[in-house]
Amino acid sequence: MQRSFFAKNPSVLVFLALLAIFTLVVTVLSEGFGMGFISTSFIKTLGKTLCLCLIAVAMDLIWGFTGILSLGHFAFFGLGGYMIGMWLMYERTRLIVVESLSQAEIPPTSAEVVDAIGNQIFGVVGSSEFPLVWAFADSLFLQLALVVLVPGILALVFGWLAFRSRVTGVYLSILTQAMTLALALYLFQNDSGLRGNNGLSGLQNLPGVTASQDQVSLWFLWASAFALGVGYMIAAWVVSGKFGSVIRGIRDNEARVRFLGYSVETYKLAVFTLTACLAAIAGALYYPQAGIINPAEIAPIASIYLAVWVAIGGRGRLYGAVIGAAFVSLLSTWFTGGQAPDISLGFYTIKWVDWWLVLLGLSFVLVTLFAPKGMGGLVDLWTDRRVPNRHGADLGPDDGALREKEASE
Amino acid sequence: MRHLLIAIIATLLSCTGAFAQEGAIQPVLQNHQAAIVKSSRKTIAPAIDAIASSGVPQAQQVLEVWAAKNMWMRKSDGVFFIAEKAEDKTYRLTDFDTGQTIDGVLKADLKQIKPNSGIRAMIGTALVRFQLMDADKDKRQDALTSIERDPEAAHLAPLRASIDAEPDAGLKAQKQRLERLLTIGYDEDTQARVDAILEMSGDLGVDVRATLNPLMTTTRAVSAGDVPQGLNIAQVLVPGKEDFDTEAAYELLVKENLAAPRLSSGEMRAILAEHIDGGSIAGVPVAQMNTLENRSKAYASLAAEGKVPPLVTDETIQAALATHVFYDVYSEPSAEVTDAAQKALNDISVNVGMNQALDLTLDALSLASIYFLAAIGLAITFGVMGVINMAHGEFIMMGAYTGYVVQQIIPDHTISIIVAIPLAFAVTFAAGVAMERLVIRWLYNRPLETLLATFGISIALQQLAKNIFGTQARPLTAPGWLDGAWVINDVVSISYIRIAIFILAFIFLGVFLFIMKRTRLGLETRAVTQNPRMASSMGINKDKVNMLTFGLGSGIAGIAGVAIGLFAKVTSELGSDYIVQSFMTVVVGGVGNIWGTLAGATMIGFLQKGIEWLNPSNTLAAQTYMIIFIIIFIQFRPRGIVALKGRAAGD
Predict the structure, then answer these.
(1) How is chain B split into domains, by residue range?
(2) What is the mean predicted confidence (pLDDT) over A309-336?
(3) pLDDT tops 70 at residue B61
(4) What is the pTM of this model?
(5) Across the interface, do B273 and A174 touch by the CB < 8 Å criterion?
């Protein structure tokens, strides 16, 4: 009997409906629409949060469902941002340069225009030549293709190397972390061709768009919400079918799946590359809203925070990842932005700007120890899902398997 | 020149003939009275030479007094004296030769001799020969140092003369070495210079290279037709070959005024803009000026009308280059000397290269021992227990901060280090045990979650350190006896701190091996590692062993923190700087084996230094390449250099 995709996954419909309602409400209340209850900067924060939710979905797919704790997905996120940032920066600089050169008595040649753009962009790192990586920066279409292609190919090559030599578990985590660190260190150099630690800036200004930031921030919010919706559906579709069963099997006991005749490496590689592409799309939407990207964004610590969000939200369920990313990143913005009230203990005043990370670290440890289901586990209370009582006997095939947590009566 | 020589000879003759027997300097001064009074840099040389080479003992005093502007002349008879200002605005004169004094001379009767700075420098040079023979050893040393710093041809003769009489063996060797170097640079006899160069070839001293390198300086020159004769040519250049491109060649021609300068696109643009005539330039509309072809066309028409100089095209450049010859010419005229210097420099560079390799090896060993120190605690927790501890770097940081706090309380650096090492061990041991009891033991079956939970502890600890100690770096000062470096020669040297860390790493290795192979705890740890359930059946308390092992690993991280803090600044990010390298060390070396960790640390240390040597300007790139290399290395040996075999390998 063939039931429809949505019938099998009611949570997808609920999620999409909530996302649509959220977007609609925020749009109506925004400055760009006219109500003005929500400031433009907060619209941007919400738009960025949606992008973070998308990469959290990708992270949940690779970690919660396939069991690969990748500490490198923010590298793909950042690469996506760099790819779109190159076009934004090139095009905007080109418009400015053409404008200023047209004041001259003699119209500029195209070579002069390119030279002037190079001077503008690479002046900060003491260069004026366009490096090879900027070869396609003048074409929006090619750069958009590169947003997916560059991280995708990097993930494909890295994943192929890692999986074929059967690097698993914590080894793989450390290896992905090393990859991220290598990429970040490489981009920190001035001669890497991407402006070293200055990064790319001014990305919030769309070239050729005269609308105010109030409007632009709304467009990006819609685009981010749309991308999150589509990404969520793709992820839900991937995990719902036979493919989903296989990757869950790989998570819980890789050797058994291999003995059953499945090509474990191919499955892992497919998920790794797919999630890298999702992460890159999230990054390409995130950085035009943030306005600036630099190599510090790619540092390994960012990818670890990503794992923290997913763990707090509840891994192994897609909405858990979204809840975790939204909750923790918004809370983090609230605390580190200095908006949280200080607590006076008489002898010492707790300033949340200083103590937020301590609180986050400790609460993360507590979640890991006492609430492995994360915040998503709260949904179980509401849907009244009961865990089978097996009187202490193992259900899962392996000690660390998640099957136990997913089982229902 | 001949004039000068005659003057010197005449002076010498007159000195030896007439006055020297009497031992008086005044007649020499009188001989050159006019020059001395005139005080011109151009004419003073014979006077200084005459005084310096008079052989009269007072000569040194005269020169010193003269340079200090204390020499005055009595106007009535032109005799020179040392003058001192007395209290009643009169002057007291002292005769150079007899030492007799005359009091109460009015200033109007006297003329002060004021040598300008150029003359004072010449006097200083002349004084060197006296200082080189001075009875005071320190003065001789000073003279040598000043010659070394600023060698001149004039120093050569007095230096040579002073060698034989030098009583101090050390100074004599120094003088001989300096004499060789000055010979290379300034001797008039080519053969003597070549001999000196050959004698010094292969010497590692920086001073030798500093002497030889100026001999090899070349200037790039161009001339029409053939290479001119009589020049010491280093090489003849062909434009467009090797690193001498046609652009550079043409630029040289322009610089020597042998060709017309080429127009840059900006200059052409400016010239064209000057000739806009009613919306077009030479008949071409301005709007079409956005391609290079149209601009060249317009410019060519302008040139044809004679309004602008003709355009320098590629053909004219080629023609100009073909009629000229380019070459590098040595500033040193003697080919024998430059050949010998080239050969000596080659020998030196081979020698320097070998010594640099030795230096690099020492550096790499020192880096390897640092990585080993940072990784050994991790090797215990990760390797032996299979627990991944992301907070390991923060334990290193805690150790370093413990050292800092101890130093605040105990000011004596030696005692504070001795106290800090066991205290750091105790602090981090306690922290490790607490962490194992509270967190890790609940997660033994879930390694990925251990990773994340310990990461949570890591960010909390890091922020806590930031809140307590602030973000600025705190100093952890090494004791005085660890300052400085062991210098083997001008190329090879290593600081004492690094030697101490190297020794400390070896002590750790010994302690670790002793605990694992010779103690009850080690035996039990190995048993629990290999088969936990069987070990429990044998009556081993698994929990206790795990707790102690984890504490041990953490404690060693604390001691490593003290050691690392001695040469790096103590900040809250100290640990995270080392954590990835430490993991790399353990993973590359092979989990669960101390020799593997040693091999991994050695490999990573040598690798990093090797890459840095290939690309010294860029340590960031070095780290990138190293990580990429490690990722590739894991492909071929996924279980590390020293892989465990059999059941202990797990899976």
Answers:
(1) 2-122, 133-215, 218-330, 352-649
(2) 88
(3) yes
(4) 0.77
(5) no
